[in-house]
Amino acid sequence: MSNKSERESLSSKVGDGVIISCVTACLKCDFCKRGMYSHCRRGGWILGYLFDGTQAEFVRIPQADGSLYNFPAGSDEADLVMLSDISRTGFECGVRNGQVTPGDTLAIVGAGPVGLAVLLTAQFYSPAAIFMIDLDDKRLAIAKKFGTTTLVNSSDGKAAQRVMDLTDGAGVDVAIEAVGIPATFDICQSIVAAGGRIANAGVHGKPVELHLEKLWDRNMSLTTRLVDTVTTPMLLKVVRSGKLQPGKLVTHRFPINDIMKAYETFANAAKEGALKVVLTNGQSQY
Ligand SMILES: [Zn+2]
User: Fold this and answer.
1) CB proximity list for 128: less than 8 A, separation 6 or greater
2) How far apart are CA 18 and CA 7, in angstroms?
3) 22 C-alpha to center of ligand 1: Å?
4) What is the DSSP string of 158-216?
5) What's the 24 CA to ligand 1 centre distance in angstroms?
6) If 193 and its partner were Cys, which of 15, 32, 91, 171 is the partner (CB 3.0–4.6 Å)?
7) What are the tens digits of pLDDT across the range 240-286?
8) How close is the Cα of 215 to the center of ligand 1, in Å?
């Protein structure tokens, strides 16, 4: 560990405010030692997946020393809760795997919370142009506020063609898939430039068709990743500096007693204009 705050994050005490990482890490196994916490042999992605999640007043976190991060003093709780999962997913699976570089043309396919987290963290690297592609004009309007340079509504099925026209037929240096369905993966394949990268951040439940007959000569690369959460100490510093405010993604807040209302809101996200919904236990600052 290289500095004091990182060391402190490994020693939470009774009464500390902490971020519970979505990925559980023992810090001792071979995968953890390679920084691949997502595949930890004693943890990985288990919360809300292999056993019940953390939407409760009390929760026991296994491998807590590797899976909790102390709240830095003076930070906003909404920013911190967004570091539990989506900010790091967007950053690690999208921006870092896509190797976003200054001057790049970047396309983000999907303006949901993960796509918007990609948008916020991609700007660390000053891409020259950011295209946001989505079906929903409300989400596109939010993406515009958060720094997108060009909005593309994909509801007419012509999004890929529009991106190719806007880039003089070259395509984009980085295409980040942030939905997890075949249609959005197809858009990425259609718009990646020669020498470009496709970084998949979406969780896929169905097979996609890989068009190697078109991609084999493109000098492109395709990456996949389950979020490792290894960038948390770094993102905490950026949040503390005020240069990253992922709390902007929180649109609704409910006390935990109203959890069903919170789920209804999230189930009707498009109608309700919901991005991230926060549950509070009555002791929170909200
Ligand atoms: Zn481990």
Assistant:
1) 102, 103, 104, 105
2) 14
3) 14
4) -HHHHHHHHTTT--EEEEEE-S-SHHHHHHHHHHEEEEEEEEE-S--SS-----HHHHT
5) 8
6) 171
7) 999 999 999 999 999 999 999 999 999 999 899 999 999 998 654 43
8) 36
